[in-house]
């Protein structure tokens, strides 16, 4: 026996979750499972959904106004080129449905400009509602508030950067102590928890709830600004309530500035997606890696019509040393790139560790990188090549397996960090891979 | 070919001909040395966002500090283990948080062991208290011999007051009740296994709690497995060691583990697989033993240990068998299910919901991914009680909001906390399976009372 399902998605990030949701959506009778090893790298993610911020061949021309305009010019092999721009639009609409009113930006094709914690602006297609009042295209003056114990956001510096970058408003920064936090390196979850639970804290003015104490401290610094930006630690489960309370007490709109990892907006997106998975009846197994696979007998492959490559019969999940078989009809590989360890490297080779799918790369490792740190790094594009069905291709451009598709950063041919396309590619390829897997498993 | 693939050393004549061997950066370890693992940490801090203690306790510096940073500091010998390591609750959530495979909980366990060994005064109240809590297994037989007296004495407010004043054991909690008949007594009285089957055999690691406090869970396992035709062995066993790891009592844990590995390895020889009903016990056998000890057969015991429900899912058609069955009686209605941290870390957090969804008329509602907060002996310590309840608050809220008034979990201490925080009666998944597969009549007797 094995744990039996129809579609098995390996990987629990944005691509994997989207693939599982899309499979369940495309074929409601199909049983879908998502297996994820480590917690997804969504906790590292800003929570912003970028489609394409910069053109890969001409980044120096600055941020793209309309990402969809640029999709048709992408080189062959780019994941967007593989799935086509209609699929990108469908995937984004699918995301909008799942996200509901937690995300904004769907009123326009144009990229929004969201200020980041460094004071730069990032072109993005969708953004959490918590950042909506902070957009750089908005001309209202802004006060940015940083906390003494949170060195990742230096508010005066970020404000100066924003003004220098030509933001159409004046920005001012203030650094305050966070009521209730005395540790120099308190965790971001600590701030969020204090506000979420509105815990009682002691300040110079006596004992009050954390939200009120924070608002009182900020009010003393607030001038004519009609909006106030905080680092993105304003609550977790009750984030909307925290923001509303602060805004009411301050008499100004309140927004969050996305932060580096670990990131609350990333965690909230993770929660949103996993709630949707539960709602859709997708079974989730987390905390254990898929380590191996078995192919079907030769006659089973022949009966399948031999649609290119072997057929995966089942995969093996390692449960702290015990090997557990999981069987499905269709598989989606969404294990991430070099950072997520879906693609790995050794001194001699770059490889995909579960199915050993072919990863195109130069034989000489000195050709894997260029000396200019910010240059066009070949390793940034490392990943699987795929056909238009997103089936990984071997060295001869034949599908590795007839029932395996790939999605997200495990795919190669694009540099998500340079072109700001990580979330969009995960959504589009996850959507296509999941939909096809669901349809075929039916 | 690049020089990195075949490097040459200009300073050593003739070196070109020799086969290249990568430099051994760290000397061969003679004892536990976790510094190499520390280098895998790139300080993304994801572990910190998963730490239930750091979220509510402003004093606790979090798993990244306790693990890789502490072991980096210790590269120089003049650094002591930081005493905050005793605030870690050993929930082990940091392990599955880490995207870079840093062995965090192993580092914490080792650091705690070293701290207790070298820095803690063995005559201190804290040491004595921790030793008593960690070695509950040693006291339990005495209490179990006189369960009614023990329950009476432990329930007295004067006992609780003394426990708090003398030992620092919180008086807020009620001591778990001891069963009037232990599981092993019941097992012996019934004459051992009722099924003989050389082809389907399991060795049951029942752990302390289901032996002394909730034998109904252990009996449920026996009835469910016998329903599927398994011959059950109940080998001699000691505590799994979990409370000892959590208190840095590694020598106590080593002694217990040695017994368990020896006895369980013998059961493997007899053709049995090992099955546990408590998620911390299975975690201990599967992960902590191989990380911390190297007795003969430690690895094979780890590799052949299973969670009781998962074993049936993989080896039997459990869901097929449950299909269309229903459960009699009011006590099996809908459940508010909490996945214990140590289930979560074994990838078993979704299992109970999946399996029970097949049974007609009952549903298990997941109450979310927060930690219950008690973490074994952690929430029993006076100084941790408040932290423990703050961590649990989210779970209590979700249990209250769920459409159920009975709790469900696989961890004995999580169930104490669930009961303590909500007043709900708490059951184990195996009890529900027993009721569905073999009827609840036999299970009703000896059931523990809520509150």
TrEMBL record, chain A:
<dbReference type="Pfam" id="PF00890">
    <property type="entry name" value="FAD_binding_2"/>
</dbReference>
<dbReference type="InterPro" id="IPR003953">
    <property type="entry name" value="FAD-dep_OxRdtase_2_FAD-bd"/>
</dbReference>
<feature type="domain" description="FAD-dependent oxidoreductase 2 FAD-binding">
    <location>
        <begin position="6"/>
        <end position="425"/>
    </location>
</feature>
<dbReference type="InterPro" id="IPR036188">
    <property type="entry name" value="FAD/NAD-bd_sf"/>
</dbReference>
<dbReference type="InterPro" id="IPR009158">
    <property type="entry name" value="G3P_DH_GlpB_su"/>
</dbReference>
<protein>
    <submittedName>
        <fullName>Glycerol-3-phosphate dehydrogenase subunit GlpB</fullName>
        <ecNumber>1.1.5.3</ecNumber>
    </submittedName>
</protein>
<keyword id="KW-0285">Flavoprotein</keyword>
<keyword id="KW-0288">FMN</keyword>
<dbReference type="GO" id="GO:0004368">
    <property type="term" value="F:glycerol-3-phosphate dehydrogenase (quinone) activity"/>
</dbReference>
<keyword id="KW-0560">Oxidoreductase</keyword>
<dbReference type="InterPro" id="IPR050315">
    <property type="entry name" value="FAD-oxidoreductase_2"/>
</dbReference>
UniProtKB/TrEMBL annotation, chain B:
<keyword id="KW-0411">Iron-sulfur</keyword>
<keyword id="KW-0479">Metal-binding</keyword>
<dbReference type="InterPro" id="IPR017900">
    <property type="entry name" value="4Fe4S_Fe_S_CS"/>
</dbReference>
<dbReference type="GO" id="GO:0016020">
    <property type="term" value="C:membrane"/>
</dbReference>
<protein>
    <submittedName>
        <fullName>Anaerobic glycerol-3-phosphate dehydrogenase subunit C</fullName>
    </submittedName>
</protein>
<dbReference type="InterPro" id="IPR017753">
    <property type="entry name" value="G3P_DH_GlpC_su"/>
</dbReference>
<feature type="region of interest" description="Disordered">
    <location>
        <begin position="1"/>
        <end position="23"/>
    </location>
</feature>
<keyword id="KW-0004">4Fe-4S</keyword>
<keyword id="KW-0677">Repeat</keyword>
<dbReference type="Pfam" id="PF13183">
    <property type="entry name" value="Fer4_8"/>
</dbReference>
<dbReference type="InterPro" id="IPR017896">
    <property type="entry name" value="4Fe4S_Fe-S-bd"/>
</dbReference>
<dbReference type="InterPro" id="IPR004017">
    <property type="entry name" value="Cys_rich_dom"/>
</dbReference>
<dbReference type="InterPro" id="IPR009051">
    <property type="entry name" value="Helical_ferredxn"/>
</dbReference>
<dbReference type="GO" id="GO:0046872">
    <property type="term" value="F:metal ion binding"/>
</dbReference>
<feature type="domain" description="4Fe-4S ferredoxin-type">
    <location>
        <begin position="77"/>
        <end position="110"/>
    </location>
</feature>
<dbReference type="GO" id="GO:0009331">
    <property type="term" value="C:glycerol-3-phosphate dehydrogenase (FAD) complex"/>
</dbReference>
<dbReference type="Pfam" id="PF02754">
    <property type="entry name" value="CCG"/>
</dbReference>
<dbReference type="GO" id="GO:0009061">
    <property type="term" value="P:anaerobic respiration"/>
</dbReference>
<dbReference type="GO" id="GO:0051539">
    <property type="term" value="F:4 iron, 4 sulfur cluster binding"/>
</dbReference>
<dbReference type="GO" id="GO:0016491">
    <property type="term" value="F:oxidoreductase activity"/>
</dbReference>
<keyword id="KW-0408">Iron</keyword>
């Amino acid at each position: 026996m094995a744990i039996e399902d129809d579609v098995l998605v390996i990987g629990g990030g944005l691509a994997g979750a989207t693939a599982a949701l899309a499979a369940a959506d495309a074929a409601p009778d199909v049983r879908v499972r998502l297996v994820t090893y480590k917690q997804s790298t969504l906790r590292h993610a800003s929570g912003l959904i970028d489609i394409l911020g910069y053109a890969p061949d001409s980044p120096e021309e600055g941020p793209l106004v309309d990402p969809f305009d640029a999709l048709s010019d992408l080189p062959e092999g780019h994941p967007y080129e593989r799935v086509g721009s209609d699929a990108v639009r469908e995937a984004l609409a699918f995301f909008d449905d799942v996200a509901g009113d937690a995300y904004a930006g769907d009123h326009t094709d144009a990229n929004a400009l969201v200020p980041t914690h460094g004071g730069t602006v990032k072109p993005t297609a969708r953004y959490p509602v918590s950042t909506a009042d902070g957009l750089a295209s908005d001309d209202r003056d802004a006060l940015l508030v940083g906390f003494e114990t949170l060195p990742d956001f230096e508010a005066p510096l970020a404000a100066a950067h924003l003004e220098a970058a030509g933001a159409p408003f004046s920005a001012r920064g203030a650094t305050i102590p966070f009521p209730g936090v005395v540790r120099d390196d308190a965790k971001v979850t600590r701030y969020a928890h204090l506000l979420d639970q509105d815990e009682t804290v002691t300040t110079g003015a006596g004992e009050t709830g954390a939200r009120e104490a924070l608002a009182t401290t900020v009010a003393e610094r607030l001038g004519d600004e009609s909006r106030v930006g905080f680092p993105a630690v304003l609550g977790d489960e009750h984030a909307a309530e925290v923001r509303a309370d602060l805004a009411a007490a301050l008499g100004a709109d309140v927004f969050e500035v996305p932060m580096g990892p670990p990131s609350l907006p990333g965690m909230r997106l993770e929660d949103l997606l996993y709630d949707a998975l539960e709602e859709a009846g997708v079974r989730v197994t987390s905390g254990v890696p898929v380590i191996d696979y078995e192919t079907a007998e030769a006659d089973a492959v022949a009966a399948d019509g031999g649609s290119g490559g072997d057929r995966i019969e089942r995969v093996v999940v390692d449960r702290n040393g015990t090997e557990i078989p999981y069987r499905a009809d269709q598989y989606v590989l969404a294990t991430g790139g070099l950072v997520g360890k879906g693609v790995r490297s050794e001194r001699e080779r770059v490889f995909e560790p579960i199915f050993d799918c072919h990863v195109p790369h130069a034989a000489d490792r000195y050709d894997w990188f260029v000396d200019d740190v910010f240059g066009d790094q070949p390793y940034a594009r490392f990943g699987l090549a795929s056909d238009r069905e997103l089936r990984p291709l071997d060295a001869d451009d034949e599908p590795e397996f007839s029932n395996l598709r790939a999605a997200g950063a495990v795919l190669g041919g694009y540099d998500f960090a340079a072109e700001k396309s990580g979330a969009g590619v995960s959504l589009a390829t996850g959507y296509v891979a999941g939909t096809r897997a669901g349809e075929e498993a039916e | 070919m690049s020089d990195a693939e075949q490097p040459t050393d200009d300073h050593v004549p003739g070196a070109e001909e020799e086969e290249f061997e990568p430099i051994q950066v760290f000397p061969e370890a003679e004892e536990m040395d976790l510094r190499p693992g520390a280098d895998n940490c790139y300080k993304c801090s994801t572990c910190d966002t998963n730490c239930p203690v750091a979220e509510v306790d402003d004093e606790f510096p979090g798993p990244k500090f306790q693990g890789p940073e502490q072991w980096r500091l210790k590269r120089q010998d003049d650094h002591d283990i930081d005493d905050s390591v005793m605030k870690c609750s050993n929930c082990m959530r940091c392990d599955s948080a880490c995207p870079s495979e840093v062995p965090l909980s192993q580092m914490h366990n080792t650091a705690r062991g070293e701290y207790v060994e070298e820095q803690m005064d063995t005559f201190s109240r804290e040491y004595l208290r921790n030793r008593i809590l960690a070695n509950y297994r040693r006291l339990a037989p005495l209490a179990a011999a006189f369960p009614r007296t023990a329950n009476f004495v432990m329930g007295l407010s004067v006992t609780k007051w003394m426990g708090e004043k003398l030992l620092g054991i919180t008086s807020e909690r009620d001591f778990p009740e001891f069963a009037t008949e232990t599981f092993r007594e019941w097992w012996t009285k019934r004459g051992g296994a009722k099924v003989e089957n050389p082809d389907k055999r399991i060795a049951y690691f029942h752990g302390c709690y289901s032996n002394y406090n909730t034998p109904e869970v252990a009996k449920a396992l026996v009835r469910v497995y016998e329903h599927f035709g398994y011959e059950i062995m109940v080998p001699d066993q000691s505590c799994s060691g979990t409370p000892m790891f959590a208190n840095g009592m590694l020598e106590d844990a080593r002694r217990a583990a040695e017994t368990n590995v020896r006895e369980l390895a013998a059961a493997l020889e007899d053709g049995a697989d090992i099955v546990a009903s408590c998620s911390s016990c299975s975690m201990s056998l599967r992960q902590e033993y191989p990380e911390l000890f190297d007795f003969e057969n430690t690895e094979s015991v780890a590799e052949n240990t299973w969670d009781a429900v998962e074993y049936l899912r993989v080896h039997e058609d459990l869901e097929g068998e449950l299909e269309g069955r229903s459960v009699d009686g009011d006590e099996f209605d809908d459940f508010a299910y909490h996945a214990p941290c140590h289930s979560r870390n074994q990838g078993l957090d979704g299992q109970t919901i999946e399996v029970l969804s097949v049974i007609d008329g009952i549903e298990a509602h997941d109450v979310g991914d927060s930690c219950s907060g008690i973490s074994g002996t952690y929430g029993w310590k006076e100084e941790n009680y408040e932290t423990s309840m703050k961590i649990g608050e989210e779970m209590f809220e979700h249990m209250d909001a769920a459409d159920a008034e009975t709790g469900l979990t696989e961890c004995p201490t999580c169930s104490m906390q669930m009961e303590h925080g909500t007043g709900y009666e708490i059951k184990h998944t195996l009890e529900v399976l027993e009721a569905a597969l073999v009827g609840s009549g036999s299970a009703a007797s000896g059931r523990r009372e809520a509150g």
